[in-house]
Amino acid sequence: MRQRVVLAERRGARRIHTRLEVEEQTEIGEALIGGLIRAQLGLALRMALISVLVLCSLPLLFRIEAIDALHILGIRLPWLLLGFAVYPALYAVGRLYRHLAERNEHDFLELAED
Length: 114
What we know:
Elements: H1 18-23, H2 27-62, H3 65-69, E1 71-72, E2 75-76, H4 77-112
Antiparallel strand pairs: 1-2
């Protein structure tokens, strides 16, 4: 049997109406929007760092002679990786960023529905 537990509100406690706070741009609303902006900025910086680390590690990888000398279909492996592996990796990072950014916005909108 399920029971619903309702906690009594404290006297004098101010109930926050999030949507109203955001629409009227009060201090609380500005703090909420600022939190969303910081979350999106942090996400963008993390994705950029991952992309830079992956792309900057490729020249180091190509300095390994075994990889540099390897040929597939008459084309050296570094050229194949640069031509065909980098773009799908960047596409995957972009899709992951979009998914996580939309999740941040969805969480914010759920908070604003109160």
